[in-house]
Design goal:
single chain; 151 residues; alpha+beta; three-stranded mixed sheet; 6 strands; 21% strand
């Protein structure tokens, strides 16, 4: 770690503690060259997840895109943004913990539907109708019947 004051390359850690969110580690360091102290933050580096879309194109996983889709499905429903952010966190954690660096958009949609089903059934049906692109009323009714059978 290079000192921000004198650019000396060595320092010692004086104090280390997690930040409020527990996502990063705050470290107080002392430069072994000039003796001045400075703070650094360590973040766990995650390997980017690549999403294979229905048209076979690839793009980086974007949690905001998933959150926006869930927000649209939950419009005018009694579901808090915090609940939806937790769902997105759960999906992202599941993707990070898998050994696959490339996942299909279908898999992400299935994860979202599974979690959304337990939160709000109307939002689940809305999300499923867009995600599964129901061709006609029969396929829509099949999905509703599956939902009713699972009760």
């Amino acid at each position: 770690m290079k000192c921000p004051y004198c650019s000396f390359e060595e320092s010692k850690v004086i104090d280390s503690r997690p930040t409020d969110e527990g996502e990063r580690i705050r470290r107080r360091r002392e430069c072994l060259g000039c003796g001045k102290r400075f703070t650094t933050y360590e973040v766990i580096e995650t390997v980017p997840i690549v999403v294979i879309k229905k048209d076979k194109s690839r793009e980086a996983f974007d949690r905001n895109k998933l959150l926006n889709g869930l927000l649209r499905a939950c419009a005018n429903r009694p579901v808090s943004v915090d609940t939806l952010e937790k769902l997105v966190d759960d999906i992202e954690t599941k993707l990070q913990n898998s050994l696959d660096r490339e996942v299909t958009s279908n898999l992400i949609g299935e994860y979202a539907m599974d979690l959304l089903k337990g939160v709000d059934e109307v939002a689940y049906v809305r999300f499923a109708s867009v995600y599964r692109q129901f061709k006609d009323i029969n396929t829509f009714m099949e999905e509703l019947n599956k939902l009713l059978e699972g009760r």
